[in-house]
Design brief:
With about 375 residues, the chain is α/β, with parallel strands linked by helices. It folds into two domains: about 120 residues, 3-Layer(aba) Sandwich (Rossmann fold), CATH 3.40.50.720; about 210 residues, Dihydrodipicolinate Reductase, domain 2. It has ten helices and 17 strands. A nine-stranded mixed sheet has the order 16-15-14-13-7-12-11-8-17. A six-stranded parallel sheet has the order 3-2-1-4-5-6, sandwiched between helices. It has a two-stranded antiparallel sheet with strand order 9-10. α5 links the parallel β5 and β6. The longest helix is centred in the C-terminal third of the chain and has 20 residues. The radius of gyration is 21 Å and the shape is globular. The mean pLDDT is about 95.
Length: about 375
């Protein structure tokens, strides 16, 4: 589906901002403005060929040549930026988590509901073809009654005590780190597949590096450390890893392991669904393949965009089998759905995560933190 020639502005130039830019350009969306602190916006705008640069996000959201605002700044800014964009009448795509706590996310939801605009939260994993196909099969009952799901989201980019990013600091990223940063992707993905929210959780959080060493100077996500770098020590207050038991609204039970100190795992989201008819499994580091398990008969491996894979992701695959569609393509497909709704009106049940979905994920995070502190099951508020 072709997008209309809407014009977008991006707030934030770190790791994820250029990912948004690339996906938008692939869709034919013109990015007219960029925003970041100090002189950084001007520098990056020149490098990326973007005509306008701002150091104040309030100028970007009110610029006449910006119709859609993409928020890719650190988490603590999401609330103020999202509200400013909504109040300026702009469509919004906000990075996850939606904000630092449910008080902030509830404020965004209230304004987004009143606004005559599209608001999306960037849970891009929904738009892997394998995830869309699994959702389709679950809805059709092809796996049977879902008994339990399990999986993990593992990375190693914070493995060393010298690895540093703003997400490590509660005042920048929130009180949860590994769970909020990547665990919410897994939880949103599984809830999306099941068509059921998480109702209660039992969580255990762990910190491997009680003290870390912070580089003196600016760093960016996934950037390799400089051997000549000088450091200052600080105490860590956010989790390196977590284990969570989950109860979903449809009765399915689940278990999730999350880690940002898992050596050798670069960006590995795994999930397994166990139904009364068969099981299904997927691994984001092998995004083209779905695996189906049988009690009797042969297990099956299905490759994306082949007959065995199915048609549940029809409309969200642009390349034939053997031509890998992965991480960057999920952004393109999510934005394609968002910009189609901007052009034609909000879908009754959009595939992308809404402000309400973003609020829900933050409520789950708050329940996880409360559960860890209490050592007991906690219901998700709302």
């Amino acid at each position: 589906m072709a997008t209309q020639p809407y014009k977008a502005g991006i707030i934030g130039t770190g790791f994820i901002g250029p990912v948004h830019l690339e996906a938008l350009r692939r869709l034919g969306v013109e990015v007219t403005a960029l925003c970041d602190v100090g002189d950084r916006a001007q520098t990056v705008a020149r490098q990326l060929g973007i005509p306008r640069a701002f150091s104040d996000y309030r100028e970007l959201v009110t610029a006449p040549d910006v119709e859609v605002v993409h928020i890719t700044a650190p988490n603590r800014f999401h609330r103020s930026m999202a509200l400013a964009a909504l109040e300026a009448g702009r469509h919004v795509v906000c990075e996850k988590p939606l904000a630092l706590n449910t008080r902030e996310t509830a404020a965004i939801v209230r304004v987004a509901r009143r606004a005559d605009t599209v608001f999306a939260v960037n849970y891009n994993v929904r738009f892997y073809p394998a995830v869309l196909e699994l959702r389709h099969r679950v809805a059709r009952g092809e796996l049977g009654d879902l008994m339990h799901v399990n999986g993990s989201y593992f990375q190693d980019w914070l493995f060393h005590d010298t690895d540093y990013n703003w997400r490590l600091l509660p005042e920048e990223g929130g009180r949860l780190r590994a769970v909020a940063d990547i665990g919410t992707h897994w939880m949103d993905t599984v809830s999306f597949i099941l068509g059921a929210p998480i109702r209660s959780v039992l969580a255990d959080l762990g910190i491997h590096h009680q003290t870390r060493r912070r580089p003196l100077g600016e760093t960016q996500t996934f950037r390799r450390a400089n051997r000549r770098q000088r450091y200052a020590s600080y105490r860590v207050e956010t989790e390196d890893f977590a284990h969570v038991l989950l109860a979903f609204a449809n009765g399915t039970r689940g278990s999730l392991a999350v880690s940002q100190v898992a050596a050798g795992r670069k960006n590995c989201l795994r999930l397994e669904l166990y139904g009364s008819k068969q099981s299904a499994a997927w691994d984001s580091e092998h995004p083209e393949i779905l695996r189906f398990g049988q009690r009797e008969g042969a297990n099956q491996v299905a490759v994306r965009n082949t007959p065995a894979f199915g048609r549940g992701a029809a409309g969200f695959m642009d390349y034939p089998a053997g031509h890998v569609e992965g991480f960057p393509d999920t952004f393109k497909m999510l934005f394609r759905a968002v910009y189609a709704d901007i052009a034609h009106g909000v879908s009754k049940s959009p595939l992308y995560a809404t402000a309400e979905d973003g609020h829900r994920e933050v409520a789950v995070c708050e329940a996880i933190l409360k559960s860890h502190r209490r050592g007991a099951w906690v219901n998700v508020a709302g």
